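Reading a protein record of the kind used here takes only a little practice. An example makes this concrete, so a full record is given next.
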Amino acid sequence: MKRVLLILLLLGLILSSGAAGYGWYLVQQPYRNYSGSEVVDIPFGVGSEEIIDQLVAKGVIGYRYPALGYLYFSAYRGKLQAGEYLFEQAMNVEEVFEKLGRGDVRLYTFTVPEGLRLDEIALLWEEAGLGLSQEFLEAAVAALPTIRMIDPRAVSTEGYLFPETYSFPRGVTAAEGVEAMIRGFEDAVARLAGQVDPDQWGLDLNRTLILASLIESEAAVADEREVISSVFVNRLDRGMRLECDPTVAYALVLEGSYRGRLLRDDLGFDSPYNTYIHADLPPGPISNPGYASLRAAVSPADTNFYYFVRTDGGRHTFSRTLTEHNRAVAAYRRGTEP
């Protein structure tokens, strides 16, 4: 009898050892029946068994119990993070748990082009499916105290949302999006300070950003940014009004009366942003400029130009005197060289 019990015990050990070995084999091998690209959305608050059930249901892993056994004894126990995960190739159980343990969630790109206004960025946010535009605008307003820690003279969030391509997980909040763009602005300013000594900027950060927004609004061709910057700086030095059309358009946007184009009567619109009737820079940026325009604002070309008019292909004709400028405008209207 004792011999029979011993044999049964040995058989049990052999079988359990074999089962454990086979389970370990299943854990270490990528699931051979994996079909391709799968997205697994793991909600907050679900337990390990529910997570594994989702992974099995999606075909990311093949076997529930070996995965549960491995998780129980692994460093990933209790550390699998919620979120949306993209699995683009077959992985073994350990690799899947490592991905979830890192929180390596699926990211969506959101591109902010240079020169957009705050309200235009908010509309892009909604069009990208990241949230409502109104929520983005409210988050931007709420971020003003943070911006004033960077620039105490900031009047709004306008100008401080840096144009860049960002990566966000599903479920990102508008506040997190605004925060990322403000960090992008801080990084751009640090980069600029590393390339051009702030003592050589000529203007403080606030006025540099405002000038950069004007340059961004006028420059359609990259190699003209520094020359356009020089025109504005030269006019500022002489106390001349900047007479920048986009500032009038921005003033009208703030009042909700912009019709998509400027009329002559609009140039007399009474607003501190209207540089046709007020000398100096406007009180705040009129858009969110990119790095090239920030760089042009602190390193304008050395010119004696005081005027420019846009001609063919988005380029400009630059002039030293009003007479030259009027001649250039008339020539453009005639379709000839000045």
The first helix runs from residue 2 to 28. DSSP finds 13 helices and six strands in the chain.
